[in-house]
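Journal club prep — side note

Before the paper discussion, L.F. wants everyone to see what a predicted structure for a comparable chain looks like in token form. Sequence:
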Amino acid sequence: MDIQPNHLTERQLIKIPIEEGIISLRGLSPKRLRFEIEYGLERGSTSNSFLLTHSNKYKTNNDQIILINPPGDTFSDLFLKAIQKEIPLGNAHLSILIGHVNPNRISLLKKLVNLYPNTKVICSSPGAKLISDIWRQKKPTDQKKEQHGASDTIQLPELQIIRSEHVLELSNEYRLRLIPAATARWPGGLWAFEETLGILMSDKFFGAHLCTESWAESNRSSTEEDRRYYFDCLMAPMVSQVNALIEKLEELEIRTIAPGHGPAIESSWRSLLNDYRCWGENQHKDAIKVALIFASAYGNTAAIADALATGINRTGVKVESLNCEFASTNELISTIKKADGYLIGSPTLGGHAPTPIVSALGSLLSEGDKEKPVGIFGSYGWSGEAIDLLESKLSNGGFDFAFKPIRIQFSPNTLIVKQLEETGTSFGRKLLKLKTLRQPKVSGSINASRNDPLIQALGRIVGSLCVLTAKKGEGKEQLTGAMIASWVSQASFAPPGLSIAVAKDRAVGALLHCGDHFTLNVLAAGRQSELMKQFLQPFPPGTNRFSGLTIDESPNGQPILPEGLAWLDGTVRQRMECGDHWLIYAEIEHGKVIDLEGTTAIHHRKIGSNY
């Protein structure tokens, strides 16, 4: 797998020639760019932009130049130096196509407009609104600068708005088909498909956050885990919208998909499209739905929504994500009426909630079912009046809060993201429990499966009682997790390896991806009660599972429970989806028996339908 080249220790930008007149300018970051949940694997990332020119030797200012999806301000110094080598300064006519819009990208866009005054921006209709709004937004820090005589005087460039599919005939004989691809998370989405070469520049779709200099992935398996993780974090909450957009791709003669993050997909792009469909179907077999309603000015509230949705999805509950700034009233009301629970989030702008959120709140108050749980969340810079508004109105309206209002100043950090995931999982479990309580009981049987011979036979499989412990990161950003594990088996002699089944809704599962370390603590018969009690209790989101315990450390820096019988220090090598569990295969690098006289605690069951 092309992950984090060993020689790369800081951000770089490389030029990748694709064809005559087409290059990719790829920003490489060996470390995670942001704290958002989709960067959780911590394998770095790339930011891929594409430049279409008349030829790679053009000299005049009359050439038609199109820049597709420039990066955010994070890469501004590197990118601006690189782009000036490709485009002569002066009167060059530059067209910049922008799909997803956020303040970070608008900041770089302003610098490009300053360098190339004859710039035109190509965007979708929702994208035009977002660009205009963010271009004129002023943070309190900006207002202070203006008071001291410094101001941002760069004018908004001409906007070419793409309202439906549109083809640009370029001077270099390339044909660029522009396809609006709006979703709740990226309402300004805009794909660019170069018809001659069959390259789909898909921006946020089909990406993966890993740092690689290679233009394309070597094979499907080399990036499968990264793309699945990316899907679960960002695409699963809006899977119906995603599937509708994928249907459009069936009409295109694609040869390569080039996303905004990670390597291109050449030989296996059809498999990836099929994976997107399957992942969405497998994840939401249950009929329970959550309406996730939000607005996001700077992307921070959307990042909170992503983390909550990821946690909910782990329980099998479906999330219907709606950006209320771009959703119709009918769509909003329909989603609210069909939902089994509600989440609503808002930023605070100028001491107020955005108008679309106020309108959506009114719809929720009038159309929502007060018997169904609700949760509110939001980000703020200097105050949090929007969150107060949501709380007071929903409380006065008689709604039942599933958790305390989530208030996050600016953007969430790593620890907060993990807490948000666990909050979402807790919310999903609550809905599943409510559904079970409301279902009519079958007459004459408490649990029909108890009489199923297959279930009874499956329950006779026994397993060692263990505590899986894991730790990742350092200092204030360190994440920890633990769980009772009994579905454990030795899987290989050389190298020594074992397999562990981990339920999808377990919080520790987020720390068990390929390359992650953990310790398996085997419990001793007759002495397992206290540790079982510690790790079987329900933990509130974000709680330290090791509170009050004495912890040793393995050679890989993982937590060891000294009260156990033995411990094994492993590294995850494979992760396979198996129904409602993940099957983890790990190589064991270190281990020790703590009590040579003790015996292994065993988990005996009578039925195989639960633990």
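L.F.'s comment for the group: Confidence is low (pLDDT under 50) at residues 1-6, 56-61, 146-151, 442-446. Keep this in mind when we get to the figures.
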